[in-house]
Amino acid sequence: MRLGVNIDHVAVLREARRVNDPDILDALYVACANGADQITIHLREDRRHIQDIDVKNIILHSKVPVNLECSINRDILNIVADTAPHRATLVPEKRQEVTTEGGLDVFTSEEEVRYAIELLHDSIIPVSLFVDPSIKTMEKSKELGAEMVELHTGTFANLFAMLNSNLPHTKHSVKEYELPRYELSDRLEASLEAIKVSAVHAHSIGLEVAAGHGLNYHNVHEMMKIQEIVELNIGQSIIAKSVFSGLAEAVKEMRSLTIR
């Protein structure tokens, strides 16, 4: 299993004080030296964490492939085309959201997604689509010309946390999942099944399959059971753990959990 380490949250901390500390390149080097197969970053339209210069520097200095997440905004796409990462992952984006919520709607935004894929392909950049798991979405992603899909695991992660952690007793409880445990368990099983079925189908039609969003040290084992998933992109949980253990140890531990 390839491990993509998302280092956006290092930039979040840096931007909180608007100084170059912590240095995003230090995070890059540590992650690469301790088991990251890929570095993932997200250039958001509002530049809340990763900046344009970060994209250029990370692509220049990374010894492993760089997966650049971006919206289908044309100004952003032109930057991605110019900087030429190893892969671009198209994601939905809302200014008011804390983090990416849900997968890209490849049906409502079909023409914009098609344009984005063609533009990036013209610059010889492979494209992945960050999408919710469903067979119809896998089919449409293939039709649009993507080489890869990244299955959005946020629903799974929220259900897992509500069932297996203290999340329901905190102010961050997911209100829509404040349900009896038996119902949470049923929904979790259904969410996992949707991910598995989508991964199997995507693989069968020639798409590479990744997964990401909300994955952590406690739930990642469920993704490891799905053989068709070949890559995981994980960020927040690794950076959060690094506060206590250091980034090198946090990456090493996640790497140990994602070896087949």
How many helices? The count is: 11
Helix content: 40-55%
The topology string of helices and strands comes to: EHHEHEHEHEHEHHEHEHH
CATH-derived topology: TIM Barrel
Rg calculated over all Cα atoms: 18 Å
End-to-end CA span = 6 Å
Task: Give the oligomeric state.
Answer: single chain
Unreliable stretches = none
Query: Biggest β-sheet: count, sense, barrel?
Result: 8 strands, parallel, barrel
- Tally of individual domains: 1
Structural class: alpha/beta
Q: What does it look like?
A:
The chain has helices at residues 8-17, 24-33, 52-61, 74-83, 110-122, 135-144, 154-164, 181-204, 220-224, 236-245, 247-257; strands at residues 2-6, 38-42, 66-70, 87-90, 127-131, 148-152, 208-212, 231-234. It is an alpha/beta fold. It has a single domain (2-257), classed as Alpha-Beta Barrel (TIM Barrel). An eight-stranded parallel beta barrel has the order 1-2-3-4-5-6-7-8, surrounded by eight helices. The longest helix is centred in the last third of the chain and has 24 residues, at 181-204.
Provide the fold topology.
Blueprint: E1 2-6, H1 8-17, H2 24-33, E2 38-42, H3 52-61, E3 66-70, H4 74-83, E4 87-90, H5 110-122, E5 127-131, H6 135-144, E6 148-152, H7 154-164, H8 181-204, E7 208-212, H9 220-224, E8 231-234, H10 236-245, H11 247-257
Parallel strand pairs: 1-2, 1-8, 2-3, 3-4, 4-5, 5-6, 6-7, 7-8
Helix pairs in contact: 4-5, 6-8, 7-8, 10-11
